[in-house]
Amino acid sequence: MAIRCPTCNRSSDEIKFIGEFCEECIANRIKDTVPDKAKIYVCRFCNRIKSGGTFRKLDKDTLAVALKKDLGANGFRVDVIHYHNGAASLEFECDYENAKVHFTKLVDIKTVIENCIDCTRMKSGYYEALVQLRGDGYLVERMAIKLTKYVEANGAFISKTEKEGTGIDMYISNKKLVSAFFMLYRLKPKRSYTLYGMKHGKELYRNIYALRL
After folding, report:
1. Angle at CA 81, nearest 5°, toward 98 and 97?
2. How far, in Å, CA of 34 to CA of 150, rounded?
3. Least C-beta-crowded within 10 Å: which of 19, 40, 62, 131?
4. Using one digit for the tens of pLDDT, what is the confidence trace for 61-89?
5. Which residue from 86, 110, 154, 160 is spatially nearest to 130, judged by alpha carbons?
6. What is d(CA 100, CA 79) in angstroms, rounded to the nearest whole number?
7. For residue 58, what are the contacts with CB-CB under 8 A and spacing of at least 6?
């Protein structure tokens, strides 16, 4: 026997029901609880978006994570259908009385500028490792290029590069990445350390790597 939705009067012969109401009215009711506006945080220098607590390249996936948090949509799956000129068309999915409810909503987005820690560090000349490449000019240049590509591909940066006589000094933001690079290519530079500060009562050291080619 067909039943009718108390809200829109549509019949269960026409549309799927969830409990006493049609799925469209349930979806519209839930949709009304989702805010019409949200904000995202974007770095002014690299244009990455703050998503999941860190700054990442802006795409549909990172935008969805950022908007889900700002909208307070913790119980929803959120996907970005389209994003343009400060507005996003979003698709939502949630569980309601053992059924899946879907709806779309257009959300206005305000962009808030917040410099990411990488760009802030880069602008201040931050580095954790100093790599000193010495020897044949061609080999030094090739190694510098290879190291630069590796560092940048893994999300770190080189804050400064200086020519030093027959070699190059490279100031790099992540010392663990530098160690991993040398291990990957089975290189054995001379290592030393220098104390440069304290954090939470712990001494902080910069690593110095001297490699002759």
Report:
1. 10
2. 42
3. 19
4. 999 999 999 999 988 999 999 998 899 99
5. 160
6. 15
7. 42, 47, 48, 49
Q: For the chain, which residues make up each domain, given as ranges?
A: 34-116, 125-212
Ranges of residues in the chain with a pLDDT under 70 are 198, 200-201
- 19 φψ region: left (φ > 0), alpha (ψ -120 to 50), beta (else): left
Please give the DSSP secondary-structure letter assigned to residue 115: -
Residue with tokens 């569980």: 95
Strand order across the 49-51 sheet: 54-56, 49-51, 37-42, 99-113, 87-96, 77-84
Instruction: Tell the burial category of 67 from Cβ atoms under 10 Å away from its Cβ (0-12, 13-18, 19+).
Output: buried
C-alpha span between 161 and 144 (Å, rounded): 9
